[in-house]
Amino acid sequence: MYFKTKGYRVFNVFNTILLILLSIMCIIPLVHVLAISLSSKAAADANLVALWPIQFSLEAYKKTMFNPVFLHSIWISVLRTVIGTAITLCLTFLAAYPLSKDNSVFKGRNIYSWIFVFSMVFTGGLVPFYIVIQKLGLIDSFWVLVLPGAVNTFLVILMLNFFRGIPKELEEAAFIDGAGPFRTLFTIYLPISLPSIATITLFSMVFHWNSWFDGLLYLNNASQFPLATFLQTVIIQQDMSSMSSSPKEMELISQTTVKAAQIFIGAAPILIVYPFLQKFFVKGMTLGSVKE
Amino acid sequence: MKTLRKNWPFHVMLLPSMIFLLIFSYVPMAGIVMAFQDYKPWLGFTGSEWVGLANFRYLFERQDSIQVIWNTLVIAVLKLIFNLFVPFIFAILLNEIRRVKLQRTIQTLVYLPHFLSWVILGGILIDLLATDGFANRILSTFGVQPIFFLGDNDWFRFTVIASDVWKEFGYNTIIFLATLAGINPSLYEAAEMDGATRWKQTLYVTIPSMIPMVAVVGTLALGNVLNAGFDQIFNLYNPLVYAKGDIIDTFVYRTAILNGEMGFGTAIGLFKSVISMILILLSYRLAYKWANYRIF
User: Which of B120, B150, B236 would best serve as a mutation to test chain A binding (most A beta carbons within 10 A)?
Assistant: First the structure.
């Protein structure tokens, strides 16, 4: 057996070490930022913190949590994630079912799938899109965060591939018992598609939680910003004008530790759902992309 | 008529999605006429002056837009290559780890960065890669002079590509691991009978079995070659590195939205959309031809 040879054992040791190092590299930046957020201001400003907090302090989190703009942006993000995911899920589930049918069963399928695919491969570009949003009166509205991205062709494809894997006999049996497509979809397909619904839910949640550009583009008032947009303006652009204007708060935001705490809070929900997510998405991804 | 009566529930199910696609995908396509106008918001589509191809001529006369197209291609192509080969090699190496628990743990850690946004990672990287940041402190222990990763034109592209590969390589490994798991074990057994070492088995069994998937992933990525990564560049760049780091999407944002050159911005957007569409359709066709891959 090859893995008993000396050469392979040496390789195995080096390989294991290399991969462990690589995987550690993937989380070091996060550990670093967590360490800074938990250190004292003095230690962080003096650049002393590496991977472990120095002079442990929760001060940064306390300050962040007393910042009303920050808290409100979390609320907007939660709201958008819940509503946006719900809408996307309904649309995806409904659209994927007819699209998963054979051409012989559903004649219009080809036309519909072309409409979906073409929307994926060709776009009007940023400027015309912006003008449409403007004409619809969605600028400065909460709905601009939810509606434009509601249909996601990629997720529809994942879902319809899952539907195709369900044995046809199940549906035929339902038809014989007199169930129509709607009834079949909701009473037969819905319960068995829970794993793939979970995948889509989690993809959609991550998408909404992470989205920042639409907020920056369509919302003029910083008090309406979702968290990701708020963090973008404050941490990346270092634009304090989106903060409340009191000097006390301006000072608050420029501190290294508070910045780190905000970054970490921004990443926290992902870090929390991630372990649950991982169980599903590996299966979902390969189901959607590898086909016989 | 008969089929319509039978299939009406299907049409009803598709209706909501169609409405959304019509409003948010197809109506904006009509806005493309702006590319042929000197668009003024207060005059609208009907009132703005028609200028024919002037916006496109301007696009190819301006020094900066040529540079931007070039930057986009360079960054995207390098990303494509590295995002193909790093996960490929990583998957093969990871597959050699026999301890299931360790393998799972490594997987969990390397997939993670994919799910964090470039805002979060940008915030971390800007700090980490500053001249007095954590990365340079480590380098200085090896006697390396501080490197201005995000503010130096020569280093910026490297940083962008390296950080993108860092973020995505784990996630891109998934598909290759799935392929590896699908290789018929009897191939390995036969090779072993013939006295092949593990290295030879990798060379003659593993790699050839994975080539079709590499071809599919590579061709599909080809359609993305004008998307050099708006989110990433936008969150990492600054005026110091516009020369080498500005890409089509960030350029459109700055000229059209910030400077108000709407017609010009639309023209670049259209240029990009048309080329992208051709590339995507081509890559789907090739993926279908080579590996029987179909998206729908």
Answer: B120
The verdict on A256 touching B (C-beta cutoff 8 Å) is yes
Question: Per-residue pLDDT for A290 more than 50?
Answer: no
Q: Which residue in the set A91, A121, A132 is minimally distant from B277, CB to CB?
A: A121
A:95-124 residues touching chain B, CB 8 A cutoff: 95, 97-99, 101, 106-108, 112-113, 115-117, 119, 121-124
Identify all chain B residues contacting A128, using CB atoms and an 8 Å cutoff: 28-32, 34, 266, 269
Nearest to A47 by CA among A57, A35, A59: A35
For the segment B242-292, what is each residue's pLDDT rounded down to a tens digit?
999 999 999 999 988 888 888 899 999 999 999 999 998 888 888 888 777
Residue pLDDT, tens place only, A228-267: 999 999 888 876 555 544 555 555 456 888 899 999 999 9
Count of pairs with CB atoms under 8 A, one residue in A, one in B: 267
CB neighbour class for A6 (10 Å; exposed up to 12, middle 13-18, buried from 19)? exposed
Q: How confident is the model at residue A292 (pLDDT cuts 50, 70, 90)?
A: very low
Shortest Cα–Cα distance, A282 to chain B (Å): 7
Alpha helices in B182-261 (DSSP H): 185-193, 198-201, 207-222, 230-236, 242-245, 248-252
Report the distance separating Cα B125 and Cα B156, nearest Å. 12
Which two three-digit tokens encode residue B114? Answer: 């994919």
